[in-house]
Write a structure and sequence with these properties.
By secondary structure, this protein is mostly helical. It is built from five helices and no strands. The longest helix is centred in the last third of the chain and has 26 residues, at 78-103. The protein starts with a helix and ends with a helix.
Length: 132
Amino acid sequence: MGFLAVVVAGVAGFMFGAVWYTVFAKPWMAASGVPLNDAGDAPANQKNPVPYITSIVGAILVAGMMRHVFALSNIDTFGEGLVSGFGVGLFLVSPWIATFYAFGARPFRLTLIDSGYATFGCTVIGAVLMLF
């Protein structure tokens, strides 16, 4: 059952990302500087499967590690999973993103958008892990 929980939680985190980056598409494209298609309304690599495969594999790996840490920490309720996932995203992942972007001279708005996904994506993963 643990493997299924990890896969479902990872897919849920990935799906949350699809919604997040749909909502923040325009500000993300502007802040990231990603090359755009000829119409200027979507990333030029939108049809390239590599970013999507990387994203879903990454979300599943994050879910797997979170499940491991949760088990070792006796996190076993929905509320604990929700709060712990939030903490993982906000206090473990987001500071790394902020560090990378600060040294890379990336816009602070990009840090907020991507750290928001990390924070709330981990929150979703943590909550879904506790449903199994």
